[in-house]
Amino acid sequence: MKDGWGREINYMRISITDRCNLRCRYCMPDGIECVPRQNILSLEEIQAAAICAAGLGIRFLKVTGGEPLVRKDCCRLIRALKGVAGIQRVTLTTNGVLLEPVLEELKAGGIDGINISLDTLDRAAYERITGKDCLNQVLSAVEAAVKLHIPVKLNTVSLKLGEENWRKIAELARRLPVDVRFIELMPIGHGKDFPSIDHRLLLSELKKQYPGTEVERRFHGPGPAVYYRIPGFLGSIGFISAVHGKFCADCNRVRLTSQGFFKTCLCYEDGVDLRPILRKGLPVPEQGHFHWPEDRKPDDGELQTRLMEAMRKAILEKPGAHCFEHPGEITEAADMVSIGG
């Protein structure tokens, strides 16, 4: 489906929880007031939204959080999403701490790729950033995923930690067939307090450090990263430059939050709440998890009709561009962990 600006919308990021086992300084340093569990979508509700999205032309799904692996049915959800007609790729973004024990299950479920957040290879710096001493678990998970031949991308927020930091992370792509992606921190939530490295400068430094660096045209996924190949490297280096490399003209994505809000741009609060549609006529507990009725199917025709009407309208009204370069115009006040990373 095309939005009101003529862009093909084929990619949806699905947050399945607002909870996380780390406390990254630029995300949720002191934790957050998590929403009541009954407000979090059930596996079947997420599946219903994915079925509708596929009917609207969505072909690529990314499962995120919070930290998606703190949710015990995450692997089961991956398998269910892989079974949705029309969906071509299902991938996962994780901090990697809980990843290694479930890699075999994810592979069996058909996972098409895993993005692992990793901002530094310095153990002390990692603990300062995340609040936990878990670097070794993450690095072990990276190696294990590569051995299982699962495509891996390492997501590195471009924090100002010095040239040695980004260079060491980039070097992982020399010996491992992984994509190392540097990501400009967007001015949302706590991210406003952590200025990111300007990727124009980082790319210039990369080219000085590694002569012969060239743009790579190979398809790496439906996201906005621009990739580079360095001679002698097994993997590639990518840049996601939301602030200094605005890619709104080619934006192809929408988001579903863990509470069921269908969001069309990170910068604005626009979108539509799908939870009342998904739960119309159903009892919701005052506490604890919401349980989908066994006799109701995610592909129920009446439900899908209502979902499609709401989602289609939101896509047609998707903003033409973000305004991160003008912080005063941003209307989204929620933290990224509440929206979905």
UniProtKB/TrEMBL annotation:
Q: Could you say which residues form the signal peptide?
A: none
Which CDD domains does this entry report, sorted A to Z?
A: Radical_SAM, Twitch_MoaA
Taking every annotated instance into account, which residue ranges of this chain make up the domain Radical SAM core? 4-214
* A biological-process GO annotation: Mo-molybdopterin cofactor biosynthetic process
CC cofactor: [4Fe-4S] cluster
Chemical reaction(s) catalysed: GTP + AH2 + S-adenosyl-L-methionine = (8S)-3',8-cyclo-7,8-dihydroguanosine 5'-triphosphate + 5'-deoxyadenosine + L-methionine + A + H(+)
Matches recorded under InterPro entries: Aldolase_TIM (IPR013785), Elp3/MiaA/NifB-like_rSAM (IPR006638), MoaA (IPR013483), MoaA-like (IPR040064), MoaA_NifB_PqqE_Fe-S-bd_CS (IPR000385), MoaA_twitch (IPR010505), MoCo_biosynth_MoaA/MoaC (IPR050105), rSAM (IPR007197)
Q: What is its EC number?
A: 4.1.99.22
Protein keywords: 4Fe-4S, GTP-binding, Iron, Iron-sulfur, Lyase, Metal-binding, Molybdenum cofactor biosynthesis, Nucleotide-binding, S-adenosyl-L-methionine
Stored SUPFAM superfamilies: Radical SAM enzymes (SSF102114)
Please give the Gene3D superfamilies that the UniProt record associates with this protein. Answer: Aldolase class I (3.20.20.70)
> What's an example of a GO molecular-function annotation for this chain?
GTP binding
Name of the molecule in the record:
GTP 3',8-cyclase
The gene from which this protein is expressed is: moaA
